[in-house]
Amino acid sequence: MMGRMSRNKGKVGERELAQELSRVLGVTARRGVQYSGGPDSPDVVTDIPNLHIECKRTESFRLFEALEQAIHDAGADQTPVVMHRPNRRPWVVVLRLDDLPRLVECINQVKDSGNRDQDSDSLDS
């Protein structure tokens, strides 16, 4: 059973991660659970298609347990990614090496669609 302080730290971590993903990748990101709320819901939802993000804002990090949870919750159609940050440390990303090309492809889809939107905006000017 998770205590209130732990849940609050998780919520704060999810909001912080959403802000960082927006800053680093230039995508829209928000907490996922507050919108869809199911047990398999990603912790953070972004514009990146087919991406399942598991956020771990904790000091004690069990890498393979977290990754297995993300893999299970992601199902076959989504790329499972775990993002972790302990106190006074930067965010890190954990995923299976075999999933890396799929993640890059997903990110590029968003970047390409953003470039197309900018191109069409400049044509309208």
TL;DR of this structure?
By secondary structure, the protein is α+β, with helices and mostly antiparallel strands. The protein is built from three helices and five strands; from the N terminus they run αβββαββα.
Question: Overview of this structure, please?
Answer:
The chain has 125 residues and is an alpha+beta fold. The protein contains three helices and five strands, in the order αβββαββα. It has helices at residues 4-25, 63-74, 100-124, and strands spanning 29-31, 44-46, 51-56, 79-84, 92-94. A three-stranded mixed sheet has the order 3-4-5. A two-stranded antiparallel ribbon has the order 1-2. The longest helix has 25 residues, at 100-124. It is globular, with a radius of gyration of 16 Å.
Set out the fold topology.
Blueprint: H1 4-25, E1 29-31, E2 44-46, E3 51-56, H2 63-74, E4 79-84, E5 92-94, H3 100-124
Parallel strand pairs: 3-4
Antiparallel strand pairs: 1-2, 4-5
* Rg, Cα atoms, Å: 16 Å
Strand order of the largest sheet: 3-4-5
The percent of residues in helical segments reads 40-55%
User: Distance between the terminal alpha carbons, to the nearest Å?
Assistant: 56 Å
Helices, by number, come to 3
Strand content: 15-25%
Main β-sheet description: 3 strands, mixed
Unreliable spans: none
* Secondary-structure element series: HEEEHEEH
Instruction: Write down the overall geometry.
Output: globular
Mean pLDDT: 85
Based on helices, strands and strand pairing, what is the structural class? Answer: alpha+beta
**Number of beta strands:** 5
